[in-house]
């Protein structure tokens, strides 16, 4: 069970970092400090979101899964957007960047499985 959780968290964080760093590049971010910020912000938010989703899948009925994911992802987007707004040196509309990057990450995660 422990190895499964480590693998789940590691794969999820690794894929999220690749996707959201690529999204940052597409968004026009070029400064190393901003890429580091994107990395650190995702290290902060991804494990919490993955853990909550895992707990939901383990203990709650399937009926409210979509609403739960919507609420959890909204919290992630708002949290990341506020951090980006405060600290991102490049790029306009940091909340839109957060929404786009997390949207890509979330949808690709759903497609992967």
UniProtKB/TrEMBL annotation:
Protein name: Uncharacterized protein
This protein's UniProt keywords: Membrane, Transmembrane, Transmembrane helix
Source taxonomy: Bacteria, Bacillati, Bacillota, Clostridia, Lachnospirales
Superkingdom, natural source: Bacteria
Keyword check for Transmembrane: yes
Membrane-spanning parts: 6-28, 35-54, 66-83, 95-112
């Amino acid at each position: 069970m422990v190895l499964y959780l480590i693998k789940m968290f590691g794969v999820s964080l690794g894929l999220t970092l690749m996707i959201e760093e690529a999204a940052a590049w597409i968004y026009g971010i070029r400064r190393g400090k901003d890429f580091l910020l994107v990395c650190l912000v995702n290290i902060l938010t991804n494990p919490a979101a993955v853990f909550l989703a895992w707990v939901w899948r383990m203990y709650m009925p399937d009926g409210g899964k979509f609403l739960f994911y919507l609420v959890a992802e909204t919290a992630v987007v708002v949290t990341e957007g506020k951090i980006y707004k405060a600290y991102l040196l490049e790029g306009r509309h940091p909340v839109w960047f957060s929404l786009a990057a997390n949207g890509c990450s979330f949808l690709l995660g759903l497609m992967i499985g």
